[in-house]
Amino acid sequence: MATGTAVVAAMLKRTAERAKFIEESRGALQDVVRRSLASRERATAITDTHRAVRRQSLHDMKEMREAGKKTEKEAREVLAKIQLWEKAAQVSEELAFEEADAVARRAETLEDAVALLAGLMERHNSHMERLAVFRMLNGPLPVAAAASD
User: Fold this and answer.
1) Domain span holding position 143
2) Number of domains observed in the structure of the chain
3) What is the arithmetic mean of pLDDT over 65-93?
């Protein structure tokens, strides 16, 4: 019987060792599962952060495009004003030369030329006053704004 008891004792000892090994393995497995879950949570948080950053970047790009369109529209308006001023200056200069030439042809005497030139200056001053009112209504001269930049 001693042999039978020794065999049973050895089997119980081996079973206890296996149970201990299984318990240790279970604990290690639970640690691995916990770390895996924590890693997954971190990965999810990082992914969510990346999504939020991308969403914000797309929003910022959209705002930048809209601001660019607005700036482009303002630039076109300034360019149109500059072209308008240039055309007004050109027409004014052409009219002044034409009128001065006409005065020179009509004047028979020096007194006639002085009188005609005085009328020409009066019309020129009136034109400049209208131009000043136009400038007040349409803002400052765009060329000055562009030169200051």
Assistant:
1) 2-148
2) 1
3) 79
